Amino acid sequence: MNATSPAIFRANQGASELLNYSQPLLLLAARFYVAWVFFASGLTKIEDWETTLFLFELEYAVPLISPALAAWLGTAGELIFPVLLTFGLFGRVGALGLTAVNIVAVISLSEIAPAALTLHYLWGVLLLGVVAFGPGKLSVDNFIGAEK
């Protein structure tokens, strides 16, 4: 082993510790970003419910359920799960719920632009990070002891 190896290992360890300290902030940023995207979409849907129903009847091909039920469920998911995710209250439930909404959104669009699909992938990866690691130390779940 040469003399630079211990220095490289110490630098790696220092970088790892710094990244570990940043994890709560990164999880919080991911939660806020994805929650805002879906919540804003839900607000748009309730702003003009007639247009929402029209889109679910003619544009979105949600499988297995009626367009009206799909509109209600999709809108409710886009308004409830982001609140859970933002506060980190049942954070994994919120992330899983939005993951389902995200998957259904991609499946139900017959034509989706590549840039839009890339955003859906990004949101999915960020949500899966919250599912895997939990909502983090900066969450209600952590403060009430639900994430141990």
Task: Using brief descriptors, characterize the structure shown.
mainly alpha; single chain; about 150 residues
Can you put this structure into words, describing what you see?
The chain is built from six helices and no strands. It starts with a helix and ends in a 5-residue tail after the last helix. The protein is elongated. It is mostly helical and 148 residues long. The protein has helices spanning 4-47, 49-58, 67-87, 91-108, 114-133, 140-143. The model has no long low-confidence stretch (mean pLDDT 93). Helix content is 79%, strand content 0%. It has one domain (27-143).
In short:
The protein is mostly helical and 148 residues long. The chain contains six helices and no strands.
What is the helix content? over 70%
Biggest sheet features: none
Instruction: Evaluate the radius of gyration.
Output: 19 Å
Q: What is the SS-derived class?
A: mainly alpha
Distance between the termini: 40 Å
- Taking pLDDT < 50 over at least 5 consecutive residues as the criterion, the unreliable ranges are none
Give the SSE map.
Layout: H1 4-47, H2 49-58, H3 67-87, H4 91-108, H5 114-133, H6 140-143
Helix pairs in contact: 1-3, 1-5, 2-3, 3-4, 4-5
